[in-house]
């Protein structure tokens, strides 16, 4: 029901508002002022109803006074302000049209009742709180006593039943109390143990800070410390413990006792030592393994100024053959014997031998003078391998290749040192093995560069970093350009333009030579087609032909013939526009299976050239069975012809080769022509075509077309 404007309800609310504003500043309530006003509104209504009741009852005043106390309005100022507010405004806002004198008398009696109710309730509450505090104090006293008793009982139970050793001593180190676990750990009786002083328990393996921490604790400078400590038992054995010592203070905070907790870690320590040994030693030979060796090497390289190191990296020569022929069990017995011999070579202080894995071993020497020591160590290792090793009744001769790295500490990391030693070892192996080589910074740089090129090769082809240059093939009779040899180059992002000698061997080693060779073949054949299209209408000695080199790896690839056929068909080029060059060394001792792809290509019309002829020491009679149509004479035969007069012996050799080739219907091409005298001499000897810097260096395809165009037009 909504009250009329300025009706009784509105006036009642105004009274409650005035009351709340007067009292709120002196209350302890957490409510806001509007919330407090809402709490006073029903109390104001109770006073209004009592003021206007037919039969007056002052109980309403006592109830309102008590309600103020219950609302935590206990400050005496609250009562004073409330009574002033009721006296001034209750009749004014809630009296209506009644007898004013009677209403004021009733208001006064309500005020007296409110004061009485407020005082009585406040007194009762105070007494109740005092009683509660007294009861709580008595209860707390009982709880403390009970807790103290329980705490002492628990401490005694823990002290006696603990699995770890517990002992208490005074600040002078006199042992006052020990538990059973501590007695069992030391294997002595309580009187014997209590007769000892803490400071007597020293051990050679004590950490340097052990007794410094102890002194700080008993002086009260630290509250506790924790460390690993060893103790001697009466029988001489060693007890290893995790020791925690704490300081106990009295009620005034002064140091009074020391409490020690000891956990027996002897068995755990032995297990950890065993696990550590197994983790750092080779299971087969018992030598330190790669992990242990790197720790020692890192320590050696981190030594102070004036210290040096020497490292020998050994790899057995031909060990794979022993494994393959006699089995891995025999190979393992051989490695064990080699390890024993190597161990006997490194007995001086600062020397160690480790097995890195497989048949790779390392020997390390350290000290101020390792330049000669490491050479002597390598010599001892080589001598130790001289005597044959008996395995399963067989006398096996073992040899090894060693790479040596020596230098001052602090300049290189362990990984860099081992990489240099590894590179040097392979250099010794490449030189024939059974020898040692000293590390060389330039050789290391070249090997690292080779490795970088090897890893970059696969993506280089995808990124289009390869390109082809062409060197003209010139007819010695009339000087006309008859074709060109395709020479692949690598435009490396860091190293610039690289010749084939820098990356072709790497491509052959990784197998990338097959896709790279296929790409070179296709690009070269397309270029030959463009040349022939540009030759249209020009009188020339004949269509330009392209020569493409085949590596031994490509020669044995099963897709050689099909790849060549596909490329010729895709480009629309006739087979006679292509000549494939194969080195003489690749065909030495070639059987029919190896020659079959070349014969198929030759039958199609593709020319086959025998490159570097004269360097492979092949049987000349084999020329009859090889499907070749061109001999490319190696430049070593014609270098003397650059001067006039030429060496008569070289002239006779070349003349004989040319005569033999022509008798077999083979054309002769000469490489490396650099002077006019050389070209003329080769023409007189009957050579057919030549190439070299005298005519043109390798270059872009446009230049070759221009040369051919000049020859054709005169």
UniProtKB/TrEMBL annotation:
Q: Which residues form the GGDEF domain?
A: 307-441
Residue ranges constituting the EAL domain according to the UniProt record: 450-712
PROSITE patterns from the xrefs?
A: EAL (PS50883), GGDEF (PS50887), PAC (PS50113), PAS (PS50112)
- InterPro entries from the UniProt entry: Biofilm_reg_signaling, EAL_dom, EAL_sf, GGDEF_dom, Nucleotide_cyclase, PAC, PAS, PAS-assoc_C
In terms of superkingdom, the source organism counts as Bacteria
Looking up SMART domains in the UniProt record yields: EAL, GGDEF, PAC, PAS
What are the residue boundaries of the PAS domain, all occurrences included?
151-221
Q: Where is the PAC domain?
A: 225-277
PANTHER family, alphabetized: BIOFILM ARCHITECTURE MAINTENANCE PROTEIN MBAA (PTHR44757:SF2), DIGUANYLATE CYCLASE DGCP (PTHR44757)
Protein name per UniProt: Bifunctional diguanylate cyclase/phosphodiesterase
The scientific name of the source species is Streptomyces massasporeus
């Amino acid at each position: 029901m909504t009250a009329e404007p300025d009706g009784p309800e509105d006036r009642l609310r105004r009274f409650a508002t005035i009351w709340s504003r007067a009292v709120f500043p002196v209350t302890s309530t957490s409510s806001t002022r509007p919330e407090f006003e809402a709490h006073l509104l029903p109390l104001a209504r109770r006073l209004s109803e009592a003021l206007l009741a037919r039969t007056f009852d002052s109980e309403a005043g006592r109830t309102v006074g008590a309600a103020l106390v219950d609302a935590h309005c206990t400050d005496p100022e609250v009562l004073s302000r409330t009574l002033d507010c009721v006296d001034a405004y209750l009749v004014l806002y809630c009296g209506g049209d009644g007898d004013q004198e009677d209403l004021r008398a009733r208001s006064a009696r309500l005020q007296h009742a409110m004061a009485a109710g407020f005082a009585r309730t406040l007194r009762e509450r105070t007494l109740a709180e005092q009683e509660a505090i007294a009861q709580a104090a008595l209860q707390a006293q009982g709880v403390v006593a009970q807790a103290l008793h329980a705490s002492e009982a628990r401490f005694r139970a823990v002290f006696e039943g603990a699995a770890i050793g517990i002992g208490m001593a005074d600040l002078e180190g006199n042992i006052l109390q020990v538990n059973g676990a501590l007695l069992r750990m030391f294997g002595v009786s309580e009187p014997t143990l209590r007769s000892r002083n803490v400071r007597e328990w020293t051990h050679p393996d004590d950490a340097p800070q052990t007794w410094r921490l102890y002194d700080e604790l008993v002086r009260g400078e630290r509250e506790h410390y924790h460390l690993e400590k060893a103790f001697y038992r009466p029988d001489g054995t060693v007890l290893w413990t995790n020791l925690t010592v704490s300081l106990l203070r009295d009620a005034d905070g002064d140091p009074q006792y020391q409490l020690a907790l000891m956990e027996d870690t002897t068995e755990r320590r032995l297990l950890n030592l065993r696990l550590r040994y197994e983790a750092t030693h080779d299971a087969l030979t018992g030598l330190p393994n790669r992990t242990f060796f790197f720790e020692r090497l890192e320590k050696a390289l981190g030594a102070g100024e004036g210290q040096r190191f020497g490292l020998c990296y050994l790899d057995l020569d031909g060990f794979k053959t022993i494994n393959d022929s006699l089995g891995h069990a025999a190979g393992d017995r051989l490695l064990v014997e080699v390890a024993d011999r190597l161990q006997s070579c490194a007995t001086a202080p600062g020397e160690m031998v480790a097995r890195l894995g497989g048949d790779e071993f390392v020997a390390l020497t350290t000290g101020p003078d390792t330049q000669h020591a490491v050479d002597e160590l390598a010599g001892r290792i080589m001598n130790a391998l001289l005597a044959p090793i008996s395995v399963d009744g067989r006398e096996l001769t073992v040899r090894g290749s060693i790479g040596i790295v020596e230098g001052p500490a602090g300049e290189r990391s362990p990984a860099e040192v081992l990489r240099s030693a590894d590179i040097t070892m392979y250099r010794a192996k490449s030189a024939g093995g059974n020898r040692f080589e000293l590390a060389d910074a330039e050789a290391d740089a070249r090997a690292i560069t080779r490795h970088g090129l090897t890893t970059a090769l696969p993506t280089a082809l995808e990124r289009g970093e390869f390109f082809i240059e062409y060197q003209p093939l010139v007819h010695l009779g009339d000087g006309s350009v008859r074709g060109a040899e395709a020479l692949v180059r690598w435009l490396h992002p860091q190293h610039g333009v690289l010749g084939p000698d820098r990356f072709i061997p790497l491509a052959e080693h990784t197998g990338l030579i097959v896709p790279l060779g296929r790409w070179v073949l296709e690009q070269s054949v397309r270029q030959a087609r463009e040349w022939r299209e540009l030759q249209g209408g020009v009188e020339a000695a004949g269509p330009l032909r392209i020569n493409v080199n085949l590596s031994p790896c490509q020669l044995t690839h099963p897709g050689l013939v099909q790849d060549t056929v596909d490329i010729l068909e895709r480009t629309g080029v006739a087979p006679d526009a292509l000549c494939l060059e194969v080195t003489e060394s690749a065909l030495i001792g070639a059987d029919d299976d190896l020659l079959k792809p070349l014969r198929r290509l030759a039958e199609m019309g593709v020319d086959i050239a025998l490159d570097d002829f004269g360097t492979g020491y092949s049987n000349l009679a084999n020329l009859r069975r090889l499907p070749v149509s061109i001999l490319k004479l190696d430049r070593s035969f014609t270098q003397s012809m650059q001067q006039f007069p030429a060496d008569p012996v070289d002239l006779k050799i070349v003349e004989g080769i040319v005569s033999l080739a022509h008798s077999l219907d083979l054309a002769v091409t000469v490489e490396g022509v650099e002077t006019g005298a050389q070209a003329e001499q080769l023409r007189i000897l009957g050579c057919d075509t030549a190439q070299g810097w005298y005519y043109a260096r390798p270059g872009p395809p446009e230049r070759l077309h221009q040369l051919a165009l000049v020859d054709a037009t005169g």
